[in-house]
Design goal:
Helix content is about 60%, strand content about 10%. By secondary structure, the chain is of the alpha/beta class. The protein has two domains: about 220 residues, Spore Coat Polysaccharide Biosynthesis Protein SpsA, Chain A (Alpha-Beta Complex); about 160 residues, no CATH class. The longest helix is centred in the C-terminal third of the chain and has 34 residues.
């Protein structure tokens, strides 16, 4: 039997009221595309007549163990036979007869197609006010800031992708964050992503949706932050390091050469600069380790930092740099007893001495961080050799 061109996958959990509507629409879409396709219902534990209704209408029902939107779709995609996979919710809010829009993009070379409800039109009452004007725009903005996807609606539930793209994505999320995982990983893998208008209707169910606004919103945001070491760790860390370094150096230069300038700057500013520096170096160290961990999943191996680490990093190099920083800091700290108890070194002003002490402490702590981060990188590097 020849391979069907399209599989329309419908995740379902107790959707007896709406499944017939969705299956009927999906079957019309398959017919409009030439009839080479299947309608597959991925059921993950319905206790009502969802499965019986779907099977009675001719849909193929696949039982998926465990609960969760992502788990249902992963199970459905894995069981699908079509070259192109189209998904949408089983609540009647998406029109499955629009599946040809997605297939057309896939046929023309796109790997992944996302609907845009803002371009397609949102029916009155179809989307809560906060979701429409706050949640989805904020999540879409963060997605485009961190991953530059160019997508206008990251939460649209109607999507299409090739079966090859599904295999490459290696999707793992069980919950609602599955929708974010698809876009994040498609971006990191540099898949060809397209967008089509997708209207949203008021759902046909007589019960609240499975979606939980704040919990699921946080899970979407958390996933984006976890998969963007650059935006989550490296950029903030570099900014804090720059502020801390500028503050420490400026104070040291002022106290060494311009004692009477900017007298309002005092010891608390030195400690603030130290706080910025140490927080920044901590974030940078964690960011480098997170970038390497991201590489383990083979999603961000094209990142410039990942390429540099794998081309230039050696555990011994990191240990040498860290040890040198610690040694420099210890030598700096040795200045204080030598200058206080002997005449070998000039004592300097109290302000300058504080500046030098803070810089020495910064060097010691940064060196220690470098040593531990190097060991963590070395451990991760061993896993891919």
């Amino acid at each position: 039997m020849p391979e069907p061109e399209i599989s329309i996958v419908i995740p379902a959990l107790n959707e007896e009221r709406t499944i017939a509507h969705c299956v009927g629409k999906a079957q019309k879409a398959v017919a409009a595309l030439g009839g080479s396709g299947e309608v597959l219902v991925a059921d993950n534990g319905s206790t009502d007549r969802t499965r019986a209704v779907a099977e009675g209408l001719g849909a193929r029902v696949v039982a998926v163990d465990g609960k969760g939107y992502g788990r249902a779709l992963r199970g459905g995609f894995a069981a699908a036979k079509g070259r192109y996979l189209v998904m949408a919710d089983a609540d009647g809010s998406y029109d499955f007869e629009l599946a040809p829009r997605f297939v057309e993009k896939l046929r023309s070379g796109s790997d992944f197609v996302v609907g845009n409800r803002y371009r397609g039109g949102i029916a009155p009452g179809a989307m809560p006010f906060l979701n429409r004007y706050l949640g989805t725009p904020v999540l879409t903005g963060v997605m485009n800031l961190l991953f530059r996807t160019g997508i206008g609606d990251v939460n649209c539930g109607m999507r299409g992708l090739t079966r090859d793209a599904f295999a490459r994505l290696g999707l793992k999320a069980d919950g609602m964050e599955f929708a974010t995982e698809m876009i994040v990983k498609a971006s990191l893998l540099k898949l060809s992503i397209a967008e089509v208008p997708c209207p949203l209707a008021k759902d046909l169910r007589d019960r609240p949706p499975h979606l939980r606004r704040w919990r699921d919103g946080w899970r979407h945001l958390r996933f984006m932050l976890l998969f963007s070491p650059t935006g989550t760790f490296l950029v903030p860390g570099a900014a804090l390091c720059a502020l801390g370094a500028a503050g420490l150096l400026a104070l040291a230069v002022r106290d060494a050469f311009f004692n009477d300038a900017a007298l309002w700057l005092n010891s608390r500013h030195s400690l603030t600069a130290l706080l910025f520096w140490l927080t920044g170096t901590s974030a940078l160290g964690l960011g480098v380790v997170a970038q390497e961990a991201d590489y383990q999943e083979r999603f961000d191996s094209g990142n410039a930092l990942a390429r540099f680490l794998h081309g230039a990093f050696h555990l011994e190099t990191g240990l040498i740099v860290g040890a040198a920083l610690v040694a420099g800091g210890v030598i700096g700290l040795a200045y204080f007893p030598l200058s206080f108890y002997t005449n070998l070194l000039p004592r300097g002003s109290d302000a300058l001495r504080l500046d030098l002490a803070v810089i020495a402490i910064a060097a010691v702590v940064t060196g220690v961080q470098c040593v531990f981060a190097s060991f963590a990188l070395g451990l991760l590097s061993l896993r891919v050799k």
